[in-house]
Amino acid sequence: MSLFIDIISWACILCGGFLGVTGAIGLFRFPDFYTRLHAASITDTLCAGLIILGLILQAGFTLMSLKLLMLLGIFAYTAPTASHILAKTAFKCGLKPVLYDQKGGGS
Question: For residue 31, what pLDDT band results from cuts at 50, 70 and 90?
Answer without folding.
Answer: confident
